Amino acid sequence: MHFVRLVSLAMTVIVIAASLSHIDCANHTPKDRLVESGVAAMEEGDMEAAVRALKAATDLINLDTPDSNDTYIFVNLGTALGEIGQAALSAAQYRKAIDVDGENVDAHYFLGLTLQDMGRNREAADTYAVAASLDRMHWESMSNLGAVLLDLTDYSGSVAAFSEAIGTLEQREVEPTNAPYDPFPILSQLYYRRGMALSGGSSGGNRGGVCVVQAQSDDPGGKDVDCGEMAKFSFSKAVSYDEGNEAAKHMLAALTADATMKRASNSYVKGLFDEYAGNFEHSLVVDLGYKGFQLLRNFVGEVLGEENLKFGLVVDAGCGTGLIGNEFRGVSRTLVGMDLSKKIIDEAKIKRPGLYDRTYVGDIVEGIRAEGGKIDLVIAADSFIYFGDLGALFESIRDGLRRGGYVAFTLEDVGMEDARILDSERPDWRWKLTPSGRFAHRKGYIEDVLKASGFVLVGYGAMENFRYENGVGVMGHMLVARKV
């Protein structure tokens, strides 16, 4: 999660332009003229020309006696290099700026952004921390520090950083550095991220637990507090600042156990996967130990017989980066990938070129139905978990499948203790929105939906530990059904 990089870019250009504006043109040195040329190129968006001019200007800097403008020559050269995809060279220029002036906040901040883009989050966190220590009103550094600490699963550090950024923007005594024109959308995002940190990241692992956080205005004693309650407060504040923050609404519903929510909104799911597209597969497979796609492929072979796995049109519903699609490529004449997130589909094309014969970006309910009874097999590994009510989904699958076509999919189940409580308190429960923001379903409800939608269940299998959340294995269902 990056904040206002373009605003900061414009600011660094203005700093140099303003510092040069008082100089008599007749007294401009060759370095001054190169800097002016580079600044003008940046303002026009010609980063290649900016790099050439600013690089030439840096060659004229006397590092033994640098002047106040020299720091920003390196900063702007770093920014221009970053804009043309030269991250390593960009970082090197920011480091040179820091060598000239170790207290330059912009140099540290931009270096942090670059390191974050490069996936070097620990170094980025250290760099953001330096920038924030140099300017306590630099809310952008604290915001990004919170983001990288959240990625590093340093939840308490992330909470503290987000809280400081929030406090900086909400206070009225001192103007924040680079104060946003409209702080409400930014505050909404900051509260949402703080809620995620309090919830133990995307897993919601701290729900109902007790944690110790740095004393804030709403906790003057610095005592033990309920992270779940603080997370609810943060998500609620996020929605109050921006009623269109669907992610915050979704997580608030999850933490309040809202049994009326029937599915995650398209905007929530799209935003979730757009944001994490680049790191999605690594996080899922490596960090969370996800193996549902492999389990489902093996299960389909067992149920239908490997010798019978020859399909014409196969739709990978909620395809992500193509994990399950790759498992079925060899038995599919035509493989179609469908997902709400264009960014995740683009990532699939990068990771697995040529995997899909065609792709569809949009709601899978609409996309499947649009195939008009031509599909032989619908596969979905860990993608139907964003639906609570499965009725409309399986009606669309019925309409999209040919007669005798199959659907093979996975869903989450609740743990044994949760099942016992739900069976006792809500005997008719069908699904549960979990603190992770995903839906878990009751086996009997899934079977009822399949029957009502015109399917016969061909095979069922329980999954144990098909993914881990905070070191705890997640339970799940595997099902294969045939359209009658």
From TrEMBL:
Gene3D superfamilies in the record: Tetratricopeptide repeat domain (1.25.40.10), Vaccinia Virus protein VP39 (3.40.50.150)
User: Is Transferase tagged as a keyword?
Assistant: yes
Question: Mind telling me which Pfam families this protein's record contains?
Answer: Methyltransf_25 (PF13649)
Q: Where is the signal peptide?
A: 1-17
**Name recorded for this polypeptide:** Methyltransferase domain-containing protein
GO BP annotations listed: methylation
Q: Which UniProt keywords apply?
A: Methyltransferase, Signal, Transferase
Which segments of the protein form a coiled coil according to its record? Answer: none
User: What GO annotations for molecular function exist for this entry?
Assistant: methyltransferase activity
Instruction: Supply the source organism's classification.
Output: Eukaryota, Sar, Stramenopiles, Ochrophyta, Bolidophyceae
Q: What InterPro entries is this protein classified in?
A: Diverse_substrate_MTase (IPR051052), Methyltransf_25 (IPR041698), SAM-dependent_MTases_sf (IPR029063), TPR-like_helical_dom_sf (IPR011990), TPR_rpt (IPR019734)
- Domain Methyltransferase intervals: 314-405
